[in-house]
Amino acid sequence: MLKADRALLHWRAMRGLGDVGLAEQAVQETLLRAWRACARFDADKGSVRTWLLAIQRNVLIDMSRARAVRPIDADWSEHGDLIELRHASPDFTDGLLDGLVVDELLSRLPAVQRHAVVEVILRDRAYRDVAVDLGVPVGTVKTRVHYGLRALRRLRLAA
To answer: Is residue 83 one of the residues assigned to a domain?
Structure first.
């Protein structure tokens, strides 16, 4: 494994978990799982980097799920605040405003990009399913989503 691959794994783990210790643990777990599954690696299906990233994706999902069900480590004096936060509901107006901003930004995209972003990102549909519905190749849907999200980032920064 190249040094750049390890750096990429660590960067993705930090981005996903937000903690240096957990990120290092995720990288180690990824490499351990790769070592155990090395007999199943097929170079015809992709590069080692792609294979490692796929394994890491599963590791990050597993770690995020495990963190979600564990109790929060906190001092007893903080429990009152945590209980209040746990039972607080978001302000309706915040959600409404966020929705209006997203709707406004989406309206500025070309129709094909807007439709692809809404279906894949907001409705959480698979690229393949959206491609079948639209009658276009999967790569076309991926390209539309990519350029749509890039345009949204630019619009948001310009606003």
So the answer is: no
DSSP string, 25-47: HHHHHHHHHHHHTGGG--TTT--
- Across the 159 residues of the chain, what is the mean pLDDT of every consecutive 10-residue run? 77 85 89 88 83 89 81 50 49 58 82 91 90 94 92 70
Confidence (pTM): 0.44
The number of folded domains in the chain is 2
Q: Which residue has the tokens 């209006």?
A: 100
Contacts 24+ apart (CB under 8 A), 9-17: 9/52, 9/53, 9/56, 12/53, 12/56, 12/60, 13/56, 13/60, 16/60, 16/64, 17/60, 17/63, 17/64, 17/67
